[in-house]
Design goal:
0% helix; 7 strands; mainly beta; 83 residues; three-stranded antiparallel sheet; globular
């Protein structure tokens, strides 16, 4: 899902990444770190971010993933469905 107005609905630490439940499109580092993003080692300064579709990530202590939760609810017969 494309990012709408640069607004994300979730933020999780890299160590808690859940690629089954979430789709990540940005990485924010609160401390200097060198995470391995999609198989590529990337040196990031504190306070920096990268907008990229994240398929895999390791390392990156002090970094956070921003993105969206997959829509796993069942739609009902009314507009908007049921939750």
């Amino acid at each position: 899902m494309p990012l709408l107005n640069d607004i994300h609905s979730i933020i999780v630490p890299v160590a808690s990444a859940n690629f089954t439940a979430h789709s990540y499109t940005e990485i924010y580092c609160g401390a200097n770190a060198t995470p391995v993003i999609n198989g590529q080692s990337v040196t990031m300064a504190a306070g920096s971010s990268i907008k990229i579709k994240v398929f895999s990530i390791s390392g990156g202590t002090g970094c956070f993933l921003l993105g969206e939760t997959f829509n796993n609810r069942q739609d009902g017969p009314t507009i908007g469905g049921t939750y």
